[in-house]
Design goal:
Length: 145
């Protein structure tokens, strides 16, 4: 199965001080060992960059652009990067309209549109509740024990 990694998984996988660090790394490792196809999309990278380079005092990781780029390069080697297609905008617009999506949740709808567009069946995320409204998406939550 194809599994999209949500941005929060990438962030927690490199943020060693996070309480979710081990859960993120373990979930990614288990899926990889089970030969699941782990994928990312450009939006995940955009969101990662935003948080990774944001100063810590503003709830970011405070990484330099150089270090953030090194992390992105690593992610692109580890996971399949699925490109945005010409259909993505129309699919996203249909989703936000049909689901009455508002505010920050429009970003999640764009991830779902990318999943539909590429036939990605599952999402690995710490925020499963934000995606339950969408049909046909299997949600995988890391074990935080």
């Amino acid at each position: 199965m194809k599994v999209l990694l949500d941005t929060n998984l990438l962030l927690r996988s490199i943020e060693t001080a996070s309480k979710q660090h081990a859960a993120a790394k373990d979930a990614i490792k288990k899926l990889a060992e089970d030969n699941q196809q782990l994928v990312i999309v450009p939006q995940v990278i955009y969101e990662f960059w935003s948080v990774a380079t944001r100063p810590q005092e503003y709830n970011g990781l405070g990484l330099s652009p150089k270090v953030a780029k090194q992390r992105v390069d690593t992610f692109e080697r580890m996971f399949d990067l699925l490109p945005d297609s010409a259909n993505l905008y129309a699919m996203w617009l249909d989703l936000v309209e049909s689901q009455s999506v508002i505010g920050k949740n429009v970003h999640d709808a764009r991830l779902v549109a990318a999943m539909y567009d590429h036939g990605v069946s599952h999402l690995l995320t710490f925020n499963a509740k934000d995606f339950r409204r969408y049909d046909g998406i299997g949600l995988i939550e890391p074990n935080e024990e």
